[in-house]
Structure formats: structure tokens, C-alpha cells
Amino acid sequence: MRYDTVIVGNGPAGLSAAIYAQRAGLSSLVIAESPVDGGQIATTYEVDNYPGLKGISGMELGMKFREHANQLDTEFLEARLLEIEDHGDYKSLILDQGEAVETKTVILALGADHRKLGVPGEKELIGSGVSYCATCDGAFYRKKEAAVVGGGDVALEDALFLARFASKVYLIHRRDTFRGAKVLVDQVLATENIEVIYDTVVEKVSGNIKVESLELLNKKTGEKSSLPVQGVFMAVGTEPNVDVKGLPQQDEKGYIIAGEDCKTAIEGIYAAGDLRTKQLRQVITAAADGANAVTSVQRYLNHM
To answer: Which of 38, 107, 130, 287 is a plausible cystine mate for 42, CB 3.0–4.6 Å?
Structure first.
């Protein structure tokens, strides 16, 4: 069987695309490596910025997306995509199970992963004080003390955003100067409840059930210290999931180049969600991408 479209990924972008594809009457298949639906959002303790579903957990939101897709009889296959072969009017998707799936179009919704520090306690406390998205989780730290780790624009923006809610924000940077825009640096330095800790790295995230403190090392002096905080936001970048052969053109950071219509440099292949070049990576923008990608697929199929 040759599908009208195959969607790769079961995060908000992929599941949104699945819903729109079924509603459009397209023959479709969702291929996902992970049995856990929702992508990155599944690790978020509570989602506070998705319209109409305030206070829902990330895992529950992912399950709701999947339930909606299931109600429309979406076909799913648990497998990992290894390679895309472009044959013009159709694509062959080579899977880790050794089989190939043929489709007229492909919607890539593989997502991206937050770059990890790789320190003890980080993985264990994800969703319990360790976060990678200030705009997602910042409001939970109202009148609490939190830390941001990083020195680029995202870290600076996260610190400024958190300062609206938290009583104190510590910005931990491994260098003595910032890589971010000067205007952001100036704003951070002028914000009373932000304290910058220079030349310092996090060696450990401590806490039993939730984050309780960070174990720090000053790289210049060698001094070690413990910083009591109730949350820590890692802002050291993201990495797109692009370990697939035959992908469309990517930018210098590895993100697939595509606009709001999700069209890539290869005709018939679309990129949706955190995988593509975009300004804001949130659940709501990923879901919107899924809808846009299917609209582009329909137009492409109509003109084939």
C-alpha cells in the first residue's frame, strides 16, 4: 500500500497532523519510535499555557492527543525511521525493522531534545524541579527561588521571564561574559531579583522528591558551594532529532529549513514542530504546524 502521507513522530505536531489527515480523508500512517505520546511535553509535570486545559499534566495532554487520533481510526506503527529515499512522486521510508513503507508525502515531526548538562540528579528530577522551558513552567515558581543555567539569549530571556514570578533568580554562567544580546544582558543586570553567578558550573542537582539545591563549582577559584533553590531551568540549547538519512536541507544547528507552510527543500516532504526552523517552540505552535503541514500535503496531492 502507498499512503497519501506518513507522519513520523507522536508529539503534539505529529498527533495534530494525524488528526487533520484523518479528517481530510487521507490515507495516513503515524510512525513513532517511542510508545509514550506527547514528545517533550510528556516530561512536564503541569502544563499551564495550553488554552482551555490549564493545570493538565504533560503526560495527560499527550494521552488526550492520542485518544483524539485513535477516535478517528488513525493507524500507528512503532518503529524508528532510518532513511528516506526520494523517488519523486513517492518516498520510501526505511525502518529499523527492515521493512520499507511507501508514501506520496512525508510529514517529519521528530521533534528536538533539550541539551542536557549530564550531571547527577538532572535526569532523576526532570519534571520535579528540573525544567527546560521557562515559559512552560515559570509560573509555578511564584515567590520561590529558582536558577537558570546558561549564557545565551535563551538563558537571559528565561531569567527575565522567571523574575516576574520568582522571589529570586540565580543565573549561573560558566564564563565571565555573556554570549547573548547586549540589550538582554543590560536588562538582566538591571533586574533587582536576578543575581548572576559567573565562572561557575553545576556539578549536581540535589533533592529527594523535588529539587532542593545545586552543587556548584567556581572554575576560576576551584571553590565548591551549595545553592538552595526550588527549581532549575537548563537553557544550554536544544538538539533536533535528525539522525535520519535523506533529510531535507538543514540550518547550521541542524534544524530542517521550513516556513509556516512546513514545506522543505524536497517536494513532498514537510517539517512540523520543534524539528523545523521557527521562532517559538511550544505545544501550541507544534500543534499548529501539524495542521499547516496537512494543508500543504492536500494542496500538493491535488496538484500531482
So the answer is: 38
